[in-house]
Amino acid sequence: MSAFTIAVAGKGGTGKTTLTGLVIRYLIERRKGPVLAVDADANSNLNEVLGVHCEGTVGGLREEALGTAGSRPHGMSLDEYLDMRIAQVITEAKGFDLLVMGRPEGPGCYCAANNVIRKYTDHLLDSYPYIVTDNEAGLEHLSRRTTQDTDLLLIISEPSVRGILTAGRVNGIVDELGLKVGKRVFIVNRVNGPGLPEELKETVEKQGLLLAGTVPADELITQYDMQGTPLVKLPEESRAVSALYKILDGLEIP
Ligand SMILES: Nc1ncnc2c1ncn2[C@@H]1O[C@H](COP(=O)(O)OP(=O)(O)OP(=O)(O)O)[C@@H](O)[C@H]1O
Ligand SMILES: [Mg+2]
């Protein structure tokens, strides 16, 4: 069985990581879990939303592998060494595991390390029913995606023309690059008031975006942020969580 994969995209600071964390929680609570959470943002912070301490990163491991020739246990090949270590950079938590990609590679030849890592992560993809990836802002990461297809892409924006235009560009790039995306929906986050302001609806339509719903600006999120409380601990009745759950209920996630 191969996993159902969900990813987020959108302008910086629109709430991608927050919503990714809450999607993971939804899958654990409402679906059959377990979830592999992948933090693909070089400035990783999904672990904070999820309230777990991250053990290490794939990037860090790649760097480490280059320097280990001398310190590897006697007779252990690079492959064997990476195989052993990569299991240790996965953080295990209740209902989900977290894999943090970390910084992308620097100069130097990483081919051997990359191959082993790729082999391992491909294999991981088959062992979870759900994989949810938090991405960095911008569009470059979309073109770098080579490993997996996405079943559901959540394009996130704040309620602003600029945010919606960025979302429209994401939408366009997905087509241009011929990325394999099963379903693509648009969510406007941090909305004040009952729904999307009238003046923005037209912009959404012009961009050809399929609006799945809006998530309100939530005072509780601001409060949790201030106190450093992981956002996955928000009560289910909170405005943001209940709105997002309602959207997800309508997306026919298997
Ligand atoms: N619905 C909401 N109501 C209030 N605050 C929110 C809401 N959604 C997100 N936030 C806050 O907005 C800020 C940015 O959110 P987040 O880090 O999830 O965005 P991001 O898109 O992942 O940012 P980046 O592009 O830097 O990765 C955070 O402080 C978050 O707590
Ligand atoms: Mg983020």
Low-confidence stretches: none
| CATH architecture identity | 3-Layer(aba) Sandwich
Widest sheet: strand order? Answer: 3-4-2-5-1-6-7-8
Bound molecules: adenosine-5'-triphosphate, magnesium ion
If you compute it from the alpha carbons, what radius of gyration comes out, rounded to the nearest whole angstrom? 19 Å
* Number of discrete domains: 1
- The computed structural class is alpha/beta
Using the coordinates shown, work out and report the CATH topology.
Rossmann fold
- Give the count of helical stretches: 10
What value does the average pLDDT take? 88
> Oligomer, anyone?
single chain
So what's the CATH class? Alpha Beta
Number-wise, the strands total 8
Beta-strand residue fraction: 15-25%
Helix content: 40-55%
Q: Largest sheet, if any?
A: 8 strands, mixed
**CATH homologous superfamily?**
P-loop containing nucleotide triphosphate hydrolases
What is the end-to-end distance? 13 Å
Shape: globular
- Output the helix-strand order: EHEHHHEEHEHEHEHEHH
What are the SSEs and their pairings?
Layout lengths: L3 E7 L5 H15 L4 E5 L6 H5 L7 H10 L10 H9 L3 E3 L3 E5 L10 H15 L4 E5 L5 H5 L5 E8 L3 H16 L4 E11 L6 H9 L4 E6 L2 H9 L11 H11 L5
Parallel strand pairs: 1-5, 1-6, 2-4, 2-5, 6-7, 7-8
Antiparallel strand pairs: 3-4
Helix pairs in contact: 1-10, 3-4, 4-5
Describe this structure in words.
The chain is of the alpha/beta class and 254 residues long. The longest helix has 16 residues, at 161-176. Helix 1 (16-30) packs across helix 10. The mean pLDDT is 88. Helix 8 links the parallel strand 7 and strand 8 (211-216). The chain is built from 10 helices and 8 strands. The protein has an 8-stranded mixed β-sheet. The protein has helices at residues 16-30, 46-50, 58-67, 78-86, 111-125, 140-144, 161-176, 198-206, 219-227, 239-249, and strands at residues 4-10, 35-39, 90-92, 96-100, 130-134, 150-157, 181-191, 211-216. The protein has one domain (4-249): 3-Layer(aba) Sandwich (Rossmann fold).
